């Protein structure tokens, strides 16, 4: 009999409950609204699309506090259906009323898959992006809303998403590993043998959400996937993949990959891009850092090539896994699969 403890696969209703419960606290909404890049870009995109929104019916998928719905009302929308599944919907109702917009914005408590709207819409707006873009699988709900409620020729804000990857050198990692060599000088106990254990602990298979500084990025980022929200299907989201090729800027030790995303809003003058790139101002999404099992030294123009595949976790469909096949310089091809730690799998129902 095997004594290996297997993670329990969460049934979908429990997955959803855990997901929606996480949005019932003020902290996550404070973080999102306080993210100036995120919130101001959405506001600008909505106001720039006022010609397409004025006098039209809008659906806000996963409305949260209702801020995007209010932006749409301010842009001249005739009616906004703000659909929100978690209890923050009660606060959204208060905020809408507090702004004297209850005649234009209707907050509907429920998932977009279960609510029944009285009419079709001409615009869908949603802030659905999770860590590494696809964590939380909220895009599935936007696509459901698109297929069921969006009129032909309607617009989706944002309308496109792109994924990028780049090799990086994380100096903090090397500092943490080197720390065990400094203990003897401080306390007279040689703990350098802890370095290998520390490396295994830190350079694990978790997707680490962290801010990457520009100085740590070792190449121009490579785009490996693009999603057109007007045409992409839920089936295609089961495996989002693509090839990449980078060339290192100079001599360094590659100890991780950085994955980030952009989303693009169509605008009458020119598209507006919300970017989570390390080369742009920081957002609450930061970047997804994928640590290799061991660092690899590179020099100027060393090629870093491979393929990235993103797909839902078997334990919880809302959690993303990232598999990377990669080759650095003359080294043989390596593979590693990463996931965001899912502590809910250990929680009691």
- Estimate the mean pLDDT confidence: 91
Number of E-type strands: 15
**Overall 3D form:** elongated
For the record, give the distance between the C-alpha atoms at the N and C termini, rounded to a whole number.
Answer: 26 Å
Low-confidence stretches at least 5 residues in length (pLDDT < 50)? 1-10, 344-349
Strand content: 25-35%
Helix segment count? 10
Helix content: 25-40%
Largest sheet: 6 strands, antiparallel
* Alpha carbon gyration radius: 22 Å
Structural class computed from helices and strand pairing = alpha/beta
The succession of helices and strands, N to C, reads: HHHHEHEHEEHEEHHEEHEEEEEEE
Protein traits:
349 residues, alpha/beta, 6-stranded antiparallel sheet, 5-stranded parallel sheet, 28% helix
Structural features, described:
The protein has ten helices and 15 strands. It has helices spanning 12-21, 26-34, 36-48, 50-53, 67-74, 88-98, 139-149, 171-187, 194-202, 234-237, and strands at 57-61, 79-84, 105-109, 121-126, 150-157, 160-168, 207-210, 222-228, 240-247, 252-265, 272-275, 287-298, 303-312, 320-328, 334-339. The strands form three sheets. Strands 6, 7, 8, 10, 11 and 12 form a six-stranded antiparallel beta sheet that branches. Strands 3-2-1-4-5 form a five-stranded parallel beta sheet, sandwiched between helices. It has a four-stranded antiparallel beta sheet with strand order 9-13-14-15, with no helix packed on it. Helix 3 (36-48) packs parallel to helix 5 and helix 8 packs antiparallel against helix 9 (194-202). It starts with 11 loop residues before the first helix and ends in a 10-residue tail after the last strand.
């Amino acid at each position: 009999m095997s004594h290996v403890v297997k993670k329990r696969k969460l049934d979908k209703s429990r997955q959803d409950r855990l997901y929606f419960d996480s949005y019932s606290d003020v902290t996550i909404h404070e973080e999102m609204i306080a993210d100036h890049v995120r919130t101001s870009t959405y506001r600008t995109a909505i106001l720039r699309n006022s010609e397409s929104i004025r006098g039209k019916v809008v659906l806000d998928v996963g409305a949260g506090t209702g801020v995007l719905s209010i932006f749409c009302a301010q842009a001249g929308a005739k009616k906004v259906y703000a659909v929100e599944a978690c209890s923050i919907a009660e606060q959204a109702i208060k905020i809408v009323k507090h702004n004297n917009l209850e005649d234009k914005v209707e907050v509907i408590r429920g998932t977009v898959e279960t609510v029944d709207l009285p009419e079709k819409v001409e615009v869908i707006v949603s802030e659905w992006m999770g860590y590494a873009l696809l964590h939380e699988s909220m895009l599935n709900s936007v696509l459901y809303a698109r297929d069921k409620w969006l009129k032909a020729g309607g617009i989706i804000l944002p309308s496109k998403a792109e994924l990028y990857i780049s090799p990086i050198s994380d100096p903090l990692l090397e500092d943490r590993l080197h720390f065990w060599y400094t203990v003897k000088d401080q306390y007279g106990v040689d703990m350098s043998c802890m370095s290998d254990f520390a490396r295994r602990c830190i350079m694990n298979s978790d997707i680490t959400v962290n801010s990457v500084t520009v100085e740590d990025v070792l190449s121009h980022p490579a785009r490996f996937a693009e999603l057109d929200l007007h045409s992409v299907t839920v089936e295609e989201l089961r495996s989002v993949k693509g090839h990449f090729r980078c060339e290192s800027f100079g001599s360094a030790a590659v100890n991780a990959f950085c994955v980030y995303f952009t989303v693009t809003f169509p605008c009458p003058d020119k598209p507006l891009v919300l970017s989570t790139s390390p080369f742009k101002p920081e957002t609450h999404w930061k970047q997804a850092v994928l640590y290799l099992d061991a660092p690899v030294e590179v020099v100027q123009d060393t090629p870093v090539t491979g393929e990235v595949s993103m797909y839902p976790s078997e334990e919880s469909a809302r959690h993303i896994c990232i598999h990377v096949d990669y080759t650095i310089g003359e080294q043989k091809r390596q593979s590693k699969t990463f996931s965001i730690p899912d502590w809910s799998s250990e929680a009691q129902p």
